[in-house]
Amino acid sequence: MTLLADRFGRTFPYLRLSVIEACNFRCTYCLPNGFQARPGRPEPLSREEIARLLHGFAAVGLRKLRLTGGEPSLRRDLPELIASAAAVGGIESIGLTTNGTLLDRRVTRWREAGLTNLNVSVDCLDRERFQTITGHDRLPEILRGIELARELGFKAIKLNAVLLRDLNDDQMPAWRDYLRERRVTLRFIELMQTGDNRAYFERHHLRADGLEQQLQDEGWRLLPRATDAGPAREYAHADFAGRIGVIAPYSKDFCAGCNRLRVTHTGDLRLCLFGNVGIPLRPLLQCDDDRPRLVSALRTQLGLKAIGHRLHEGETGLTPNLSTIGG
Ligand code: SAM
Ligand code: SF4
Fold this sequence. Notes:
Layout: E1 14-18, H1 47-58, E2 64-68, H2 78-86, E3 93-98, H3 103-113, E4 117-121, H4 127-134, H5 139-150, E5 156-163, H6 172-181, E6 185-190, H7 198-204, H8 209-217, E7 221-222, E8 233-236, E9 243-247, E10 260-263, E11 268-270, E12 278-280, H9 291-302
Parallel strand pairs: 1-2, 1-10, 2-3, 3-4, 4-5, 5-6, 6-9
Antiparallel strand pairs: 7-8, 8-9, 10-11, 11-12
Helix pairs in contact: 1-2, 1-9, 2-3, 3-5
The structure holds S-adenosylmethionine (SAM) and iron/sulfur cluster (SF4).
């Protein structure tokens, strides 16, 4: 098998697939007014279309799949989707990024279906502030869901927190208590500017450098980057079972480590989270015989992937907010 590679020698074993556009939360940085269904909008990819897509990607080296959204747990057939991905040869890990609202009720089923990795978004450990940020007073049940998940033998459980000036930048003591005994990785994500959130970004963007310096001063040690790792810089500390990762999209090396491709819920291939082009793959997902055309389209498009994003110049690309593409 020849692996997918671009002009800069990057290979792409990792696909983030958005399986639904809708979301039940109103995170202030993402969907402050909640998800607005547009009349006549296209249906998300069906299970059959997704299975064909995954077989095509697997033929060019897909090993790690992440299902995202919108809120992927709103998709009723999520367990079946996970099971059909698990049946595709070559896919070694299947992750889910979720806001955690259905975790306590569904995580056991997802795990049984073949889910191996879990990322839960928890921006804040303070219940009231969590509600201010997400629009929902559901922190206790999300934390309960995480405790349940910890007993299910996932390869990794990660919690995502978007760093927000004046909203959750005082949470380090609470996170330290949380991570002392729990083998989970907390990942701080620097707020990214998108088409919709420019004013919010100006107000709440906080660079991760200060946080990284603080971690180092407290004795957290930067771990060597695994060859197939994503863009997070990960820290460990002898006194803590948990780890802390930092995702800093504005740092200079962020794109060099890019090993991921994205496909939207309607089957558009996005070469970069902040790119200006979406390549519609859906027409190539209508019958099994289309697989050679799909594979050839993937190879051609990768040849066009740019070396890096242009976020520094305020160029946010096609992405109005990350719910459309899954982060
Ligand atoms: N709804 C799911 C969730 O929240 O986990 C999956 C989709 S959400 C778009 C994926 C991740 O992107 C979440 O961890 C979320 O916090 C993050 N995210 C959304 N908008 C962001 C932004 N503007 N900057 C940084 N991270 C963002
Ligand atoms: Fe929904 Fe996730 Fe966006 Fe929050 S970050 S609004 S949970 S898609």
